């Protein structure tokens, strides 16, 4: 059964394994451990049969939720897991008093851009060479969470 909940220290290895499976040159295990101690940080994990299969996080900056990352293992994609993580993140953001949400996404990550558009985000800008090697970030916002 799928379960969505706030991250706990014992989840770090599972979250890091998902990160390594989904991203190149992304965060370290210690960076995820640090997120559990960061007062701005809010991370949701997706579990299936006690295995971490996805996660998503945001930093609360005053009344804005700044998404840091969302990842789902390839074998669980297109099954609603990412949508469940997003719904749990929005719910958490609303609980914390956030009124809007933002993120940067690689300009060449069309599946992610489509996912965010489907979730009410709009393209609002570009950060040149944000990811290095000439790869820009698309800045996206969702102005209403409720």
Automatic annotation (TrEMBL):
The keyword Cell wall biogenesis/degradation does not apply. Belongs to the acetyltransferase family. RimI subfamily. PROSITE patterns: GNAT (PS51186). One of its GO terms (molecular function) is protein-N-terminal-alanine acetyltransferase activity. Signal peptide: none annotated. Keywords: Acyltransferase, Cytoplasm, Transferase. It catalyses: N-terminal L-alanyl-[ribosomal protein bS18] + acetyl-CoA = N-terminal N(alpha)-acetyl-L-alanyl-[ribosomal protein bS18] + CoA + H(+). The lineage of its organism: Bacteria, Bacillati, Bacillota, Clostridia, Eubacteriales. This is [Ribosomal protein bS18]-alanine N-acetyltransferase.
């Amino acid at each position: 059964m799928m379960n969505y909940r706030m991250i706990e220290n014992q989840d770090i290895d599972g979250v890091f394994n998902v990160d390594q499976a989904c991203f190149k040159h992304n965060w370290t295990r210690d960076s995820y451990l640090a997120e559990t101690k960061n007062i701005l940080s809010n991370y949701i994990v997706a579990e299936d049969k006690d295995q971490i299969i996805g996660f998503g996080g945001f930093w609360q900056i005053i009344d804005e939720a700044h998404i840091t990352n969302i990842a789902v293992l390839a074998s669980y994609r297109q099954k609603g897991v990412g949508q469940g993580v997003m719904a749990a993140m929005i719910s958490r953001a609303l609980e914390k008093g956030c009124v809007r949400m933002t993120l940067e996404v690689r300009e060449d990550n069309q599946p992610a851009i489509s996912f965010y558009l489907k979730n009410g985000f709009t393209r609002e800008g570009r950060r040149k060479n944000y990811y290095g090697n000439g790869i820009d970030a698309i800045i996206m916002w969702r102005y209403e969470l409720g």
